[in-house]
Design brief:
Number of domains: 2
Helix content: 40-55%
Number of strands: 4
Shape: elongated
Strand order of the largest sheet: 1-2-3-4
Strand content: 25-35%
Radius of gyration: 21 Å
Length: 101
């Protein structure tokens, strides 16, 4: 058996790992704040209170470690916050009752 054939599994694993790393970087570079806000606003409209609208949502930069954006949806009586990481994944979402300061 040729010696180069013994190294093929390592070469294949290296190429696959490189492609996966490239893909993750590409996703992070291509996702925008608007994409994230629109996605979570649509979830809020689907799951939120009756009369919920997409325009009820706005985002602010995250202040916590690993939180890219905090998407706030709702009014003074009911606010839903979606904490999102840089890849657009939901870290934590919670409903807050009453006026927020």
């Amino acid at each position: 058996m040729p010696r180069w054939l013994w190294w093929m599994p390592l070469v294949v694993l290296t190429v696959v790992a490189g492609l996966l790393a490239y893909r993750q970087g590409y996703v992070a570079a291509q996702i925008t704040e608007t994409d994230v806000i629109n996605h979570y606003a649509a979830i809020y409209v689907a799951e939120g209170p009756e009369g919920a609208r997409v325009t009820d949502c706005a985002a602010v930069p995250g202040q916590e470690e690993g939180v890219w954006l905090v998407v706030n949806c709702g009014g003074a009586a009911h606010i839903v916050q979606y904490r999102v990481d840089r890849f657009g994944r939901l870290i934590e979402g919670d409903a807050l009752e009453g006026p927020q300061t």
